[in-house]
Amino acid sequence: MTRLDRLTAILLLLQEKPRTSRELAEHFEVSKRTIIRDVEGLCEMGIPVIAREGARGGYELPPEFDVQPLPLTAREAFILLLALGGLENMSNTSYSVETTTLRAKLQNLIPARRKSQAEDLSRIARLAIPKRDAQNPHLETLLEAARTRTWLAISYNGSGGKTHHTIQPIRLYSAGGYWYCEAYSHERGANRNFRIDRVEQVEPAFTPEGAAPRERELPYDDPSHPEVVIELTRRGVMMVESEQHLGNGVERNQDGSGSLQFRCPPSEIRWFARYFIPFGDDATVLGPPVLVDELLAAAKIILEKYGNGE
């Protein structure tokens, strides 16, 4: 980060709220003396930074002072165009109008001398988000419920058929071109991830009796959860590394093979069995026993379906 970039960032941070020299120094990983010189530099440029002494002292801007919109750099504009392109690939969302108007506004915010470079970069770089023919009519309802921490009654058409849940949405996220909602299900007594295009009906709900809002019953990797231990061939390592949640957990060996070791809630064991079945002999599950049992049960079903009966 150049000094000019840091001065701009300091100005924007002070516009949000007062900051101490220590907070600014830690934020930018520089010395307090450097921050003092930077603030002096802002004052020399005509920025009315107020310095307050004492235990609660620090720097702030006058209430009536407003920072005018700053021009985007080519790299900043490219990042925004890249993110916007990814959102546009999330088909059938409630934001198609907003993405169109935002792109038009963004074009006006990019200085003319930098627009060509930013657009060139956005044409040759893409976020890998597949387009899906999925309808998400309840996206905004779930988003608002997550913001206000309210309860909803939903009808969900999942892999096991239609089910009904009283949920408290926690957060929404996208993966593989689909939108998901992580929510606490009162009926299941645990967090569940719902693919939003499979939510068929949503209605307001009262807080269930005895239910308390919560993020999670236990952390995902809580010590009380089963420990999954898997050995991977070189090919198995490459397959796992492409999985967004598991890829960073692979421990590589010098010959390219590797291993996975982590803890997960018991409710996730069946998912991991389905995930690792296609690996064949590129993954060897050492534990827990319940995961091995799930793999054996799945293998038996496959053998009965395609075997010769021997």
Structural class: alpha+beta
Mean pLDDT: 86
Order of helices and strands: HHHEEHHHHEEEEEEHEEHEH
- Low-pLDDT sequence parts: none
Helix content: 25-40%
Q: Could you give the order of strands across the largest sheet? A: 6-5-4-3-7
Q: Describe the sheet with the most strands.
A: 5 strands, antiparallel
Work out the radius of gyration. Answer: 26 Å
Shape: globular
Q: Please report the total strand number as a whole number.
A: 11
In short:
The protein is built from ten helices and eleven strands. It has 310 residues and is α+β, with helices and mostly antiparallel strands.
Characterization of the model:
With 310 residues, the chain is of the alpha+beta class. It contains 10 helices and 11 strands. Helix 1 (3-16) crosses helix 3 (32-44), helix 2 (21-28) crosses helix 3 and helix 9 (269-276) packs across helix 10 (289-306). The longest helix has 18 residues, at 289-306. The model has no long low-confidence stretch (mean pLDDT 86).
Task: Annotate the secondary structure layout.
Layout: H1 3-16, H2 21-28, H3 32-44, E1 50-52, E2 58-60, H4 74-89, H5 96-109, H6 112-124, H7 139-148, E3 152-158, E4 161-175, E5 178-185, E6 190-195, E7 199-204, E8 227-232, H8 234-241, E9 251-252, E10 258-263, H9 269-276, E11 283-287, H10 289-306
Antiparallel strand pairs: 1-2, 3-4, 3-7, 4-5, 5-6, 8-10, 8-11, 9-10
